[in-house]
Amino acid sequence: MDSCDRRVRAYKNGKTFDECKEIAESMNPYFKNQIIENNKILWTEILEKVDHDELIYKLTLKFLRRDGYDIGNHKIPEVKPFNP
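Given the sequence above, the corresponding structure tokens read:
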């Protein structure tokens, strides 16, 4: 059975999955600073900053959640610091 090699499949603008992960990781410090300054960042702001690249957008949210941020939901589309 053939399987897709995730290292060579091209996504938006010809980037591989690993390149998209690197881009998302590199943008997270900017988003974290925005959250610190404004106590939140809207999903739409993140989407605009990643130039509407859906994969990078989703990876960015995933990495923010991994780093301890509340990424919200469809009713509250914002990322903010997690308050236990």
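The mean pLDDT is 87. Try to locate this feature in the token string yourself.
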